Amino acid sequence: MKKLIILVAISIVAVLLVLRFNQFMPSPTTEKTAIQPVDWQQVVVDKVEVYKSRRELKLLQQGQVIKTYKMRLGFEPVGHKTTEGDGKTPEGLYRLDWRNPNSQFYKSLHISYPNAQDQAQAKARGVSAGGDVMIHGSMKSLGGAKGQPLYHYLPAKDWTWGCIAVSNEDMDELWAQIKNNTPIEIFP
């Protein structure tokens, strides 16, 4: 009887682990995240737009969409970020003001959240607005530094703490094409 209880407990734990891990596995539609090819020698990205409800990040030149990428958001994606740890991605006009080549999530571009208005609203409520909101890649590999590389990987569900996540492959392209201080507008 004791062996049966242990076997059932191990089976339950294994099923729960598989279900938890499955949320981070790419779906069939996320294998290739960039939608159309671009001749980058002819392009200067002058704005980034993010459409949270559609999970799309768009690069623009003079108001024309150059390329669209699939992306993931914070674990509570609806609404504007107002408080540190709320899992929301900010909405509004910001700048991509600096970059981190050694990010925990491959590479990252910093979004200038919180702005003065965000800070004032948080202060009035007596909370921290948060910060360190980025566009970043996904995990570097499964199982640490020696694990399977995840260059094309994009989780099937929203998972960040408020950042915008893309595949590492797409992050390389964004990294090369977006210059510091490029405006980013994030829509609901």
UniProtKB/TrEMBL annotation:
CDD domains (UniProt xref): YkuD_like
Gene3D superfamilies named in the record: L,D-transpeptidase catalytic domain-like
Pathway of action: Cell wall biogenesis; peptidoglycan biosynthesis
Stored InterPro entries: LD_TPept_cat_dom, Transpep_catalytic_dom
Assigned keywords, A-Z: Cell shape, Cell wall biogenesis/degradation, Peptidoglycan synthesis, Transferase
The keyword Cell wall biogenesis/degradation is annotated on this UniProt entry: yes
A Pfam family recorded for this sequence: YkuD
Every L,D-TPase catalytic domain range: 46-187
PROSITE patterns: LD_TPASE (PS52029)
Any one biological process term the GO annotation gives: cell wall organization
Keyword hit for Transferase: yes
Highest taxon, organism lineage: Bacteria
A GO molecular-function descriptor: transferase activity
Residues the record marks as active site: 136 (proton donor/acceptor), 163 (nucleophile)
Family the entry assigns: Belongs to the YkuD family.
The protein, known as: L,D-transpeptidase catalytic domain
Organism name: Acinetobacter puyangensis
